[in-house]
Predict the 3D structure of the following.
Amino acid sequence: MSQLHISKVAVGCSGLEALRRRQEGRLVSGGSAPSGVSFVPIVTRFRPKRAEELLGGSIYWILQHRLTARQRILGFADSAGDGRTIIELDPELVPVRLHPKRAHQGWRYLPAQDAPADLAEGDVAGLLPPPLAQALCALALI
């Protein structure tokens, strides 16, 4: 079986650096992640029904209507008292090849075959201004 991922809009983030700064302030240790491992908690209303398939997969962040970066999913935990679920993410944000994606509420499953590849070192797509990269991506040129 191929790996399953999810996508989620990074609400209020103007770019990858804004998302990185936001998450640096949320970094914690413990939880259901392996002992001593730091993670970034993301709180969601419901635990994904396919949570077991998501372990080791990634959350792909939507910024400015395109998949921009991913983080590996380390585990899931229950929030104390309110019934919400905490998705525990690896702190490393991995830039990916830009891929158009409509905004949505919450998270959506993303099959491995639909997930963009990681951005290679020196890949020009990561150096372009966002509006230009978005236009080229929409035309399937990058």
Observations:
- The radius of gyration is 15 Å.
- DSSP finds three helices and eight strands in the chain.
- The mean pLDDT is 86.
